[in-house]
Specification:
Elements: H1 27-40, E1 88-105, E2 107-109, H2 111-115, E3 120-136, E4 142-147, E5 150-160, E6 192-195, E7 207-217, E8 220-231, E9 234-244, E10 275-285, E11 289-300, E12 308-309, E13 313-322, E14 328-339, E15 343-344, E16 364-376, E17 387-418
Antiparallel strand pairs: 1-2, 1-3, 1-17, 3-4, 3-5, 4-8, 5-7, 6-7, 8-9, 9-10, 10-11, 11-13, 12-15, 13-14, 14-16, 16-17
């Protein structure tokens, strides 16, 4: 089914419209209609001063304003706004992503197809991320930010019985199929019911469904947001971030045979590398909409202690939030993401066991769509200034260097408070 070779195949570039056939309730069915409605509501030009709203004294001179629930981007956008000199902001974000279904490029694959090549195949995954933020502005032009991340991920795999400790020796040989899936795990749960064997893996004594899990701190980000333009109801700031390698790159499942107990590249909590995280953010407002666009990148500077380095990543976001209500602002967001494959390799990981162990098979591109709702308690009321932001969405298009699990949906929930 998948040829065994060690030379990386050329990466697929671009996303074609015929990628998926989503259901009526999928994000791909909801987001285009929401974007059309937002375009119709765009109203006056960005340079026209507001005349029918009173969202704060900051707008008297026709500058962009963060006042009101529409003044912040949807929750999934990091580093979207700056603060006034001396102002602090504390925030917390919870994100859950679910994944299932194997894909190669834009084509769906069955578990049995992938099982013909690999003795361990990912089935489904839930990734929970807890992200505390703290922001402080030493001046009107510069805002500093630090963000930590605690991960709690669970993944079910179909696994040959002889990969478990006590069942003899693991799957030998080298080579690979076609790509890993998207995140991490460390075994801490018992495996689940057994099943029949599979002839293509020879004398493996059958297979079972097994759960990997990993929990712990991932990499940490510190950044400076530097405003370079602020007039005509528009603002531009630079996102100058550094990723600190505080996450583990050696997570294992000790229930597996020792030679295959190291979990694959996407299952490791951290990159093990120092990272440059540059970006730029544009913000603009009309009487009816608060708009934004952001481009961000991640470049790993060094190879980690295990002999590998994650590929470069890029993300482009665009969003629109509806203005005019003191309590609530609905909105939409589009996000394009690309990720390169791993360079180097971890000598402990055997690419013949799972596509997640193959450094050449860790890239892909995704176009996501989201629906958002920002809530803020107005001034003069208990808890004034507290924000609660909600966002839900998923892939409109996916092109993955498979076999790799695709994303089903993502939920982001966040709290923010400036003081």
């Amino acid at each position: 089914m998948f040829s065994r070779h060690t030379t990386p195949r050329p990466r697929r570039r671009g996303l074609l419209p015929a990628a998926l056939a989503p259901s009526a309730l999928a994000p791909s069915a909801l987001i285009p209609a929401a974007l059309t409605a937002a375009a119709l509501l765009a109203g006056p030009s960005l340079t026209q001063a507001p005349h029918s709203m009173a969202l704060g004294a900051q707008e008297v001179d026709a500058r962009w304003s963060s006042a009101g629930p529409a003044g912040h981007a949807p929750m999934g956008v990091m580093g979207d706004h700056t603060h006034h000199a001396g102002e602090w902001m504390a925030s917390y974000m919870f994100s859950r992503m679910t994944m299932s279904g194997l894909r190669n490029g834009r084509t769906s694959l069955s578990v049995d197809q992938v099982w013909e090549t690999y003795p361990m195949v990912p089935l489904e995954m839930t990734m929970d991320m807890h992200m505390p933020h703290l922001m402080y502005a030493p001046s009107d032009r510069v805002t500093l930010m630090v963000m930590g991340m605690w991960m709690d991920h669970r993944m079910d795999v179909r696994m040959a019985n002889d990969l478990m400790a006590g069942h003899g020796h693991g799957h030998g040989g080298h080579g690979h199929g076609q790509m890993g899936q998207m995140d991490d795990g460390h075994g801490d749960h018992g495996d689940h019911g057994g099943d029949g064997g599979h002839g293509d893996h020879g004398d493996h004594g059958g297979f079972h469904t097994h759960e990997h899990g990993v929990s712990g701190w991932a990499d940490t980000e510190v950044s400076a947001l530097v405003t370079v333009f602020d007039r005509n109801r528009q603002r531009i700031h630079l996102n100058l971030g550094v990723g600190i390698p505080t996450g583990s790159t050696t997570a294992t499942d000790d229930r597996m045979v020792p030679e295959h107990s190291r979990l694959g590249y996407p299952m490791q909590l951290g990159s093990g590398s120092w990272e440059a995280r540059p970006g730029v953010t544009w913000l603009g407002q009309t009487d009816r909409l608060s708009l934004g666009a952001q481009g961000m990148g991640v470049v790993r500077v060094n190879e980690n202690s295990e002999g590998w380095r994650r590929g470069a990543e890029g993300a482009l976001n665009g969003w629109a939030m509806l203005r005019g209500h003191r309590w609530a602002a609905p909105g939409v967001r589009l996000e394009g993401r690309t990720r390169g494959s791993v360079s180097g390799s971890d000598a402990v990981m055997d690419p013949a066991v799972s596509p997640e162990n193959d450094p050449a098979l860790q890239g892909g591109q995704v176009l996501n769509g989201f629906l958002a709702l920002n809530l803020q308690v107005p001034g003069g009321r208990p808890l004034a200034g507290h924000r609660l932001n909600l966002e839900w969405g998923g892939p409109l298009l996916q092109s993955l260097d498979g076999p790799q699990m695709g994303t089903d949906w993502t939920l982001n929930v966040g709290w923010e408070y400036a003081f």
